[in-house]
Amino acid sequence: MNPLPLLAFEPRPREFSARLSRRRVRTLGERGRRRHLGRRALILLAAVAVPAFAAPEGWSGFVIGANFEIGGAGRAQVQLEPMPFEQPGNSFPGSAFYYLAPDAPAPLLDSSAHWDSAEPLGGPVARALRAAGTPLDRTRALQCLTAAVYYEAASEPDAGQAAVAQVVLNRVAHPAYPNTVCGVVYQGSERTTGCQFSFTCDGSLARVPSRFFWQRAESVARAALAGFVYTPVSLATHYHTIAVHPYWAPSLNFLGTIGAHRFYSFRGPAGASGTFRDAYFGGEPIAAPHARSASAATPDPALDPLAVQRAYDEGLRKAQAGAVAPTMSGFAPIRAAPAPTYSAELQARGGETLYRGEKLPEATGIRPEYQNSGKWITQPGT
User: Fold this and answer.
1) Within 74-204, where are the H helices?
2) pTM of the predicted model over 0.90
3) Rounded Cα–Cα distance for residues 159 and 164 (Å)
4) What totals of helices (H) and strands (E) does the chain contain, helices first?
5) d(CA 278, CA 275)
6) DSSP secondary structure string, 255-307?
7) CA triplet 156, 157, 158: central angle to 5 degrees?
8) DSSP bridge pairs for 254
9) Which tens digits make up the pLDDT trace of 189-221?
């Protein structure tokens, strides 16, 4: 097959070649900077040369031998003088005298000194509160105890705040007072005067508490509700500031002073350690003062510490006579425990006589206070 002939009007193909320039196009700004480069170099040279020509006498200090030295700085011998406040007995304006003499050694602490934070003010100490109840009870108890610590002892040291919290918990354990934290704190708050804690009825709750001091009081209350016992206040149930002198103070047992408060406990059976026997079971009321009551003007013996103390004294005398025994709500008659009942088989074997301990040996060295051990107590108090 023969190839097609080339057309007469088509040019003969040939290779393409071209020469392209790779130089970057300079902008107007770059051209201006290159034009002023020489001027900048002359200005820099003048800034270095003019000071050197202005002080020709100092040129010799630049190079000495093989060492490089500027202005003879290395040969300068400067005598350093102490500052006035570094010299014994001298000072500078606006400062206290500064003496270089060593301080005298601090005297050692007396090993026989008595510290109130280590020993109770007097008598036995309280038992730890065992928190119980629902989470709502614990929240209300914390809020009420924090309010008591804050409004009663916000400016007190830690010891003063812990003492106030312990007084509240001592009342919770005492049968003469409510068995809840909020009940103790807001007892008598329906009155215009005569409440148990003055901040609940004198308008102090209208003040917005400081966040910092409230958190500080809350930490003290939280520790007390967690079982911490502040032993220095012992079984104190009352306190007052050192600026006042209430009528009941001479009739109670004064324990001591912590911070700005004087602490007291009941005398006689009302202040005995066995009286603080109530356990905490929760059931906290609302953490707020009671509504004002028209009958709040009449005296309430439950709010008078002397009336409570007298009632316990009378109850002890009657209990020792076998008539009545004190209870939470007042005084109730003592009833002898009924004799136990036995089955017919035990009755046939002797019944009550089997448990009287009448066959105990008499000459075995038993101490007199243990002679009646094992005998049935038919009459309480004997």
Assistant:
1) 135-153, 158-173, 181-185
2) no
3) 9
4) 8, 7
5) 8
6) EEEETTEEEEE--GGGGSGGG--PPP------SSPPPP-GGGGS--GGG-HHH
7) 120
8) 264
9) 988 777 889 899 888 898 899 999 999 999 999
